[in-house]
Design a protein that fits this description.
The chain is mainly beta. Helix content is 0%, strand content 46%. It folds into three domains: 110 residues, no CATH class; 99 residues, Beta Barrel (Elongation Factor Tu (Ef-tu), domain 3), CATH 2.40.30; 97 residues, Sandwich (Immunoglobulin-like). Strand 7 and strand 8 form a beta hairpin.
Length: 347
């Protein structure tokens, strides 16, 4: 079905109340979600400041419309991550999002390792900007300036520089950002058959510049694409970290509400396990972002916050451009339900 992308001013305004939601879309196949039929997502696989009741409607092969209840916003940002499978690459992209009454509708397209549409499972996370006490910025890159959907907690206007085919810099001005110690979430936008990666930002002229590279799924070649980026220095997640080559934890770009630094273990080629001992709360949500510079990519394998809480383990699988398991680097963020006494964007 057709979808009209949101259109916002260059600098998004904040919501008077926190609005965020996540879901693990575990109804993805023809048997689980018949085409055109709104299908309930397990109550244990979702959370929203607007309450439960998220649904998914499968609208074609690998194409979905997710309804997140009670969080409608024209100024938010959304991210998705393919879930499951260690033996072949999968990519999911956002193809549209926007308000529908009181709810937020998110459209998603998933691809196999060759760039063909495929029914697959994924996680989705939506956040609308609100009054916050940490550095937070978003960019909705559409290929034109100013970028719609941008937000900057320092009150500045973010921008994008295109350096060459498929290579960009997200420019986030403000003193709160120049340290470059925050976390990046990145998702390809619109059904272009691309996937994107982001590298650690560097300070330049009072701004943080974050390199972004996009690749055609079918060939692995650099390609121009649209994308959605979030950047936060603490606060936007219960925990996040960046895993560098080795593998090793980038302690300067790690955060958790408990103050701990995670560990990382290489289980096998392209298979990693990140562990926090005191962060997990049942039924959390994870987003994975590739940080590779050669077209390799990663997705979510498992979230285990249930077998020995508060211990949390997150398995991540990485792949070569051919879709085979291959060692790589990535960032991972973990969102969880807030305590019952506190509903806030800090999850």
């Amino acid at each position: 079905m057709p979808f009209t992308p949101i259109s916002t001013a260059a600098s998004a305004t904040t919501s008077p109340t926190p609005q965020w939601a996540y879901a693990y879309v575990n109804k993805a196949t023809a048997a689980e979600a018949p085409i055109g039929v709104p299908t309930a997502i397990s109550v244990n696989s979702q959370w929203s400041t607007g309450g439960t009741g998220a649904t998914v409607t499968r609208i074609g092969t690998g194409a979905y419309e997710v309804r997140l209840p009670g969080v409608a916003s024209s100024t938010g940002i959304v991210h998705v991550t393919a879930y499951r499978t260690h033996y072949r690459g999968r990519t999911c992209a956002v193809t549209g999002y926007g308000p529908s009454g009181a709810d937020e509708l998110v459209e998603v397209q998933c691809y196999d390792e060759n760039g063909a549409p495929v029914d697959w499972w994924f996680t989705v996370h939506f956040t609308a900007p609100t009054a916050i006490n940490y550095a937070y910025a978003t960019v909705h890159h559409t290929g034109t300036q100013p970028n719609s959907g941008t937000f900057n907690s320092d009150g500045q206007t973010n921008s994008v520089v295109r350096d060459s085919t498929g290579q960009y810099r997200a420019v986030i001005p403000g003193a709160s950002f120049v340290s470059g110690t925050g976390h990046i979430k990145l998702t390809a936008y619109e059904a272009t058959g691309a996937r994107c990666s982001a590298q650690a930002g560097t300070a330049a002229g009072g701004a943080l510049e974050i390199p972004v590279s996009c690749y055609a799924i079918s060939t692995g070649a650099l390609v121009d694409a649209k994308w959605l980026l979030s950047y936060s220095v603490g606060g936007d997640a219960a925990a996040y970290t960046t895993v560098t080559a080795g593998p090793a934890i980038d302690t300067g770009r790690s955060y958790s509400v408990t103050g701990e630094t995670p560990t990382v273990e290489r289980i096998g080629t392209g298979w990693y396990r990140v562990t926090w001992q005191n962060v997990g709360i049942l039924f959390g949500n994870v987003q994975v972002t590739s940080t590779a510079t050669d077209g390799r990519y990663c997705h979510l394998g498992t979230i285990n916050d249930y077998s020995a809480p508060p211990r949390l383990t997150v398995d991540v699988y990485c792949h070569t451009t051919a879709g085979l398991l291959g060692d790589s680097t990535f960032g991972v963020s973990y969102m969880r339900r807030p305590p019952a006494s506190c509903v806030s964007q800090e999850t």
